[in-house]
Structure formats: C-alpha cells, structure tokens
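Please discuss these two lines.
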Amino acid sequence: MDLYAEYRAKLKTAAEAVRIVKNGDWVDYGSNNSYPPALDAALAERRDELRGVRIRGNLLRGPLAVVECDPEGDHFIYNTWHCSSYERRLCDRGRAYFTSMVFRNMDWYYRSFLTTDVAMVTVAPMDEHGNFNLGGALGATCSVVENAKHVIVEVNPAMPRIRGEAAQLPLSKVDAVVEGEGGPLWEMPAPAPSEIERRIAEQVFPHLRDGATIQLGIGGVPNAIGELIAESDLEDLGMHTELASDGYLALHRAGKLTNRRKSLQPGIGVLGLAIGSREFYDWLDDNPDILGCRLDYVNSIPVIAQQENMVSINGCLSADLFGQVCSESVGTRQISGTGGQLDFVNGATAAKGGLSFLCMSSSFTDKAGVRHSRILPQFGGDIVTTPRSEVYYIATEYGAVNLAGRSSWERAEALISIAHPDFRDELIRAAEKQHIWLPHNKR
C-alpha cells in the first residue's frame, strides 16, 4: 500500500476516531499547540457513555471540552504537568490535578511509569516521506506518542514544521487521521516589558558576553533582556532553550543570534518547545538553522553543561532568606510548574563560564493595593522549585546577588540588599530571630 492509500485508509471523522477510548483509559493530549480541539470536542460528546477516563496535558490554552462538559468530574479526570492560566483556574476549582515533574525526566516517566492508552495530538500535514510534524510541541509530545498504545492525529496546516528527528511522526505509527478545521494557533506575542522588568534586565545584562549561549524563559524580563541585547554591541549569541519565544526572533532580526560560537551544535539553534507570535512560527517553519529536540536531550544537565558560556535566565515568584526559590506556586496554590528551571540552573552552573539567573520583582501589589515583599523570611507552604543548594544568582530591580557557596548569614545579607527598601528592616529582624544575621551586619 502506498503512503497516500494508507493515509486514506486511516482517515476518519473525529467522532469515529475517539470510539477507541474506553472506560478508565489514560488519554494524553499534545502540549500547547498540539492540543486537538476536534478530538477533544468529540470525546466530550461521549461523556454519558464513559466513566473514569483520565486525561493528561500541559500548557493548554483551553477551554477543554472534556472538562467543561463534566462539572463533577465523574466521566473525565484532567491532570496537568504544567499549568497555563486556564489550567491554573481549573486547579483552583478542583477540576484539574497537578503532576509534579522536571522536564528532563519526561521520557523516563512515560517509558517507565505511565500508561497512555490513547494519544491525541495536533500535527502539521504529512510530507512526501510519510511524516507528520509535531511542531512547537515536539519536545514534550514525542515521548507521549512513542509510548502510546494508540495514536490519533488531528491535522492543522497552520502548525509550523520544525526540523529534527524528534518532530517527525511517521504515518506507520498512527492509528487514525482526522483532518481538522485548521484553526489559528495559540499565539503568545512578546509583551512589552514594564519599567521594573527593564531594571531587572539591567542587573543581568552586564554579566553577558560575546559568544554566550542563552536560555531565555518566557515573560517580561527575558523580553527586556532581548531588547537590551538587540541594542548592544554583543555578538554571536547562541540558542539552546527548552521553550523558545519571540525574544529569539528579535535577536535574530538584530543580527545577534548566529549560533556560530556554540560549543555544541555550532551554527544551529536548539529548542524543545515553541510558543509565540505568528511571525515567530513563520520564522521557525522549516528553518534549517533551527533544530527541535526532545526534552530529555535539550534539558539534560550533561548536554547543557557542554555549552561554554551558557547563560540561563528564568523568572521566579519568591525567595526566602535561606535562598530557597519558588517559581511555581503562591503558598500551595499551583501557578505553573517546575518545568525545566532546575534543569537549566544545574546545567548552566556546570558549564565552563556558565551562569544562572533567577529573576523577580522585589515586591508586588495585591488587588487591595497592599504591597508585599517577594523576599520572605521563610516559606510557609510555597513549593520549592530550586533548592537553596542549587541557586546561583538571584536578581531583582535592586541588584543581582550570587548565593553559590554562601553561608546562611551571607545569603540573608545579600537577599535583603536586593529586597524592596520598605521591607528591609523587617527582614533584618526576621533574620535575627532565625539566627542568620550577624550583630555587626550592615543595616
């Protein structure tokens, strides 16, 4: 049977394809833009005949039909690796459940511990070699489809094709093909940085040097870093990142992103996931200078450590005076997930000339107009994302301090120095009570 005959034989409607799902099955949806809307809607239509179907996903825009159609969760139980704002609201309502993980271990989890009865993923159309493309979800979704008992694909021509073996899904591994309506992808254009985010970026920027390979997270601070780099004299920067976004496109347009001086894979920018604007997706599409790889490679500590002058720049939510960092919760309320932060903190720290920065504003103002410090005496339920023994630089708009190898009183002094001035005296008093403040320390 030739490729196109095999394709036609596997072509089904969404309603036909989801008939394979049984009571109690584990169903995995693809990450971010690999979420399959037509299949999700068709599965929701089967609500009354199914019970206890367990669904996994991560970084999904929503709404999810299987969740919204089943307020009591009797038919579908949704679980997420990493919360989008929609999934965060589901967790708040008790309609989704968080699964703790680090991205470098994703393939290990799926091979060793997890069952996927049916994988449902959106892909780019099949090419002449019989391969679909997982697009900007490839790093996370490849492990799902490789270990699933059954794979259903929903085709969307808007999905960019990413170069690399990990992005390819052969027709031979697919049980059913659904031609979707080809709706627009989830776009997340780079927001304009705030004044505070620019000031934070200014604390990190002096540490960057020509030829550095940079991992940028998503958000205002990485975007501000990108703006500073674009306006600077820095040259020949490289990309090795778990999640790529518009910041890298800006660096490319400014002529700064050449990848020439990378120690590993020179000339090639490496990513695991991609979420950004339509212009960003167009830049990625079949770009020979960009390679998509699985997260157990991109986020591997030994791999990251091979990049000389590797610089990891990520956001966090809070830190305590002992140097513990929370990047995923407010108290016990799940905000996002561990993701790859710890992977890149460890990998960059192990690299020759490597640096790791965790960035946050020194304070925030709540809905009632009350200001709160992001540097706390000690955590009281917040989830520790990066343990104190692994933290390197922490940056706020008041400075960037290196905690590596520092004793408890040195950490307290350094962190208080970059706290908002309104909170420094009370943090000193707390440090004294916690016996991590020297009597002659600066006040």
User: Anything to note?
Assistant: The chain has two domains: 3-179, 195-433. The longest strand covers residues 116-123. The mean pLDDT is 95. The domain at 195-433 is CATH 3.40.1080.20 (Glutaconate Coenzyme A-transferase).
